[in-house]
Amino acid sequence: MPRPASSSSEVRPPLTVDRAGGERDDETLLGRLRAEPGTRVLAIRRDAAPLRDGRLALVSTTEVDDDVVTEWAFLGRTPDRTAVVLAALSDGAPGEIVPDAEWSPLRAAGGDLPAGEAELLTTAVALAGWLRDAAFCPACGSATELRHAGWSRHCPVCGREHFPRTDPAVIVLVTSATSDDRILLGANAAWGGDRYSCFAGFAEAGESLEDAVAREVGEEAGVRLRDIAYRGSQAWPYPRSLMLGFRAVVVDDAEAQADGDEIVEVRWFDRDEIGAALRGEGSAMLPGRASIARRLIDDWYRGVA
After folding, report:
1. Do 21-162 and 167-301 show the same overall fold?
2. Strand ranges for the chain from DSSP E
3. Could you tell me which of 85, 105, 108, 86 has the C-alpha nearest to residue 95?
4. Does domain 21-162 match CATH 3.90.79.20?
5. What single DSSP character describes residue 23?
6. What CATH topology corresponds to 167-301?
């Protein structure tokens, strides 16, 4: 029976989920949880999840048609020990599989969800992507078998064990050499040149994170850096990144120049211009609220040291 839509006045407590990784060794876990009526399911279609009243819409296992689920996985337990599982849906799965819900991608929804739900959605999107893309052993090409409640794959031919891959990437907010009230942002060609963000890129083999920061900003914006300092991290499953955030100071503001390939324009912004952009005013667009890039910019604007 379809679940009725929740009332807009209903107050739902924040949802937090403990990964409960110790339970993954039980090879019967997923089968048992799928048979338990109290188990809650977070359905993921590509990078989108169902929402009701701006919150994640979790359903029972009986409400999800197994024919449109490509893989199941254990996500963890809520504080009252309710199990939460992932249903990774096929791309063609109908939205109506979750009644009275609106589907929204992580990029759009993550910044508006409560912290626990945003973390759960990020985990689910990352794991669903790996389950979808890593069905075959990269060493010998054989079909793999799912293990550890969806968190590993075993190759029955060559015996290798495979786990969800995470690639380290750096992202940095750079401030002026002469004034902490100015930051340098870049417009990426992939965004059409009208959205400005921090500079970012993947760490290369054998490279420290600090060296990756200096190299990426030098390549994209032409500037040298000093005072590189770590600020925080964020899992970002596009496609499977761990974004490591930094702040740094430019050595010489006059060196700033876009590479003309990946970055089509670099621009200095003062604090008033950033404030206007954060309020949605002016012509410059900033990263979405779900991203660490937005957090780096917002922290700088608010004077967070």
Report:
1. yes
2. 40-45, 48-52, 55-56, 59-60, 69-77, 83-89, 102-105, 145-147, 152-154, 161-162, 167-175, 182-188, 196-197, 199-202, 225-236, 241-250, 263-270
3. 105
4. yes
5. G
6. Nucleoside Triphosphate Pyrophosphohydrolase (3.90.79)
Strand partners, 45: 48, 89
Do the Cβ atoms of 113 and 121 come closer than 8 Å? yes
* pTM reported for the whole predicted model: 0.89
| Other residues' Cβ atoms within 10 Å of the Cβ of residue 71 | 17
Where are the chain's structural domains?
Answer: 21-162, 167-301
Task: Answer yes or no: is pLDDT of 145 > 50.
Answer: yes
Q: Please give the Cα distance from 220 to 227 (Å, whole number).
A: 19
Report the candidate in 149, 122, 159, 154 with the shortest Cα–Cα distance to residue 135: 154
246-287 pLDDT tens trace: 999 999 999 999 999 999 999 999 999 999 999 999 788 999
Residues 247/231, Cβ–Cβ less than 8 Å: yes
Residues comprising the chain, all counted: 305
The first and second tokens of residue 257, run together, are 């120049």
